[in-house]
Amino acid sequence: MINTLKSLKHQLFLLKINHDKKREAIALRESTEFKERYASLNKTFTRTDLPRGPFIWGITMVKNEADIVEQTIRHLLDQGVDHILAADNGSSDGTYELLLELSKTLPVHVIQDRELAYYQSEKMTWLADRVMEAGAEWIIPFDADEFWYGVSAPLSEVLRSQKGHTIELTKLYNVFPSIEGPSLRIDPTPYWDLKVCFSRWENAVIKMGNHEVIAPGKQKLNEAAIIHYPWRSKEQFTRKLRQGAKALEATDLPDNMGYHWRRNGDITIESATPLWEALLRGEVDHETITWRPTGPLTSIGSSLPQEFKDIIHLLKEKMSTGI
């Protein structure tokens, strides 16, 4: 009897949370600020016909990611993701042309994002709405430097076995280059911030950074993981910081959003050298660079693993942090 009452109380608690999330998402979509930014995207995004069906979609915004975006996309497709919708934001390094080339032989659908400002929440929500209009079953908002894995099965199988609408991944591990040579090194301590994916719910809102989706049915998941490879060279590190700051300057977002981009927006190749070397030695703090080593790093060879099980023995689980 006591267990039955506890179960009923928990179910009522979850119903309230889901009700509140639905109201929150709808209220945000109806807010003047969100509606105006979202509506403007209908003029600044190009469009393309999308295949219809209950597919798993990856959606992404990219800018100057030619060194990694093909590897990321091929990896997601190998994990069973059915289609990719990629929006290029004025790349100057051949990223857009590379995406178009990939679209000739892979289920990659390419559009252009002609709005410089970094309104990531509205833009990613807009992309999600387009694939949901096409019947998407699951939506994975990913960055070009994120490699998503199923832990014990392909990612597609893991997602299709879930009951919740919104999945928070508790396993995200950062990878960094080595000062000495081509070897990659992984931080075995999971990163504190979460990433999310979600199943079809038409009013869902993706928050800044893809760290939260406002939608019902949230659950944490240990059976999926991300390897994050944010900094690949000093040149890419410098360019990324500068373009991130420039994109934020074009917005009216509060200063505390994207603070690590803004802080380093005037960096040059020359001034980046000591910061880059300190980063790889693990000698920078969170206030300076968000994605940084938090402890001793472990070598994983010269390339990222094909399957997560290849490196799982090197990693730590997320400790009790309220997650």
Offer a concise description of the structure.
By secondary structure, this protein is of the alpha/beta class. Helices cover 35% and strands 20% of the residues.
Overview of this protein structure:
By secondary structure, this protein is an alpha/beta fold. The chain folds into 2 domains: 19-228, Spore Coat Polysaccharide Biosynthesis Protein SpsA, Chain A (Alpha-Beta Complex), CATH 3.90.550; 234-290, no CATH class. Helix content is 35%, strand content 20%. The protein has helices at residues 2-30, 32-44, 69-78, 95-103, 120-133, 155-160, 234-249, 259-263, 269-280, and strands at residues 56-62, 83-88, 108-112, 138-141, 146-150, 166-177, 184-186, 195-199, 205-206, 213-214, 218-228, 298-301. The strands form 2 sheets. Strands 1, 2, 3, 4, 5, 6, 7, 8, 11 and 12 form a 10-stranded mixed beta sheet that branches. It has a two-stranded antiparallel ribbon with strand order 9-10. Residues 319-323 have low confidence and may be disordered.
Give the topology.
Blueprint: H1 2-30, H2 32-44, E1 56-62, H3 69-78, E2 83-88, H4 95-103, E3 108-112, H5 120-133, E4 138-141, E5 146-150, H6 155-160, E6 166-177, E7 184-186, E8 195-199, E9 205-206, E10 213-214, E11 218-228, H7 234-249, H8 259-263, H9 269-280, E12 298-301
Parallel strand pairs: 1-2, 1-4, 2-3, 6-11
Antiparallel strand pairs: 4-8, 5-11, 6-7, 6-8, 7-12, 9-10
Helix pairs in contact: 2-5, 7-9
